[in-house]
Specification:
2 copies of one chain form a homodimer. By secondary structure, chain A is mainly alpha-helical. Chain A is built from 6 helices and 3 strands, in the order H-H-H-E-H-H-E-E-H.
């Protein structure tokens, strides 16, 4: 079974790595929220997030590699739009983890409850 | 409004940075899935994921800092358990993003549909 788990990890799409990495930065999440509302030029984004153009291009590059945004250059302006990656797999992963989490902590709650009741019974017997 | 957005980014909890960063690695996600099923020693985890003890300790350290696991040393064995952080905020962030995404792409779909219909009408007039 452990070997299967190891294989699962190795076969796991690199997509999750790059998308979670792209989300691990407050500015990049802010850019995604902004671009989710309306397209924006890199210059606009740099101004809005009080960042150098080079710094913003780096962040946008990380988002673009993860498929979360696309960019298009028309004349001298590079515009940033929402990408096709809708974070479905990532949402599914989190959901699975949260179900595991609830199952484990629910189990612990039941054990603690059972111990408490046992203690109450023993206490009332004395 | 842009200033507010900038402030939002700056005030955003660092928690999302560290948890998304923790999830941006297939081995760390594998460890979380494993520990979600049952507690495991760092040595066990290192063996299961065919990794050195030092490498696994580094990964577990990243997960621990994000609150996703806790570790406890009893004698010479350090055991890794599921942490209290249940990724609620992260799931909420993804959900918000996906709603924005659907709203934007839904809008585009409607525009394309309207253009197609217009073209059909113009086409039939000729």
């Amino acid at each position: 079974m452990w070997y299967t788990l190891y294989q699962m990890v190795k076969r796991a799409p690199a997509g999750l790595d790059s998308s979670f990495n792209a989300l691990a930065d407050a500015t990049r999440r802010g850019v995604l929220e902004q671009v989710g509302r309306s397209d924006a030029s890199i210059t606009d984004l740099a101004n809005r997030f009080q960042m150098t153009l080079a710094g913003m291009m780096k962040h946008v590059g990380v988002l673009e590699q993860a498929g979360l945004v696309t960019t298009e250059k028309v004349g001298r302006v590079r515009t940033c739009k929402l990408g096709l990656h809708r974070l479905e797999e990532e949402a599914a992963w989190l959901k699975r983890h949260r179900l595991l989490w609830e199952a484990r902590f629910g189990e612990l709650d039941r054990i603690v409850e059972a111990l408490k009741q046992k203690e109450n019974i023993n206490g009332s017997k004395k």
